[in-house]
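Morning run. Coffee first, then this:
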Amino acid sequence: MGISALTPPTRPEDTVESLLEFPDNRLLIELCGEFDRNLAQIEHQMGVHILRRGNRLAVIGEKAAREQASAVLRALYARLEAGRGVAAGDVDAALRMGRPMPDRPMAEGEQIEMFSAGGMELRTRKKPIEPRTEAQKAYVANLFQHELGFGIGPAGTGKTYLAVAVGVTMLISGAVEKIILSRPAVEAGERLGFLPGDMKEKVDPYMQPLYDALNDFLPQKQVQKLMEDKRIEIAPLAFMRGRTLSNAFVVLDEAQNATTMQMKMFLTRLGQGSRMVVTGDRTQVDLPRGVPSGLQDAERILKGVKGVSFNYFNAKDVVRHPLVARIITAYEASEGDTGA
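And here it is:
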């Protein structure tokens, strides 16, 4: 088991290639990916050239890039040795994080594991979830360490997705008794009462991203049962008024669309044994003109308050299609040019 690295001593430094030996040829095939797409992804990101020679991979390039690409290949092979697959997202995560991934399977019932190499994994009922950027890793760590956490940044950076994953992890482990997910139904406004159906049917379209996240982590039948038992609640922000949320993991999504009074109302619902997460994107405010965003006010007022953490994301943390990151960067540049 394991990988050996051999560096031919006869080449000059600028043309040295690192040879990585992989004992299991079947795993090596999985490491390379269909039509060597995993290798191509590493080559493109790291600026190296990778050649396959039997059960070895030759990594050719400048020393720093060669060493980092070799580390990524070792980490992905260790992942395969542990019985876990390697998809494009896993390669992307290894490239972003720049350190070894877990080298063993998760033990039965284990909910979150901090690995000696600094990795992190959330265990949900359907699949393990791993932060894919340093910002995501710091965010997840803060959600476990602080009673109130803020995740602020553009779409596609995993703010809500990871928050729900942490909530499911805590629910499964018994750290909390319920999960409460909420969003301001700003788009509905005063028209909510005129929409067809009962209240659930009226607000469900605004809550759909939260349902999508839950269904990614838990079997649908289990989600339905937990909702019937009130151990998972999904409700508009307005429904939080007057409640004390104890022993719960509470997420407020799209918080930039909460007013200052709504934000204060929400934050003061925090009860004993609970955790709260507030996520939002300051560039996507849908409130009427002249109405300040409660997210921006909370950010200003709560900075430095003990027990409160703030994590920020940017285009580099986007884990959707790579084009999304480029779109966000282009818009940011345009706003800077216009002074917006």
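The first strand starts at residue 4 and ends at 6. Good start to the day.
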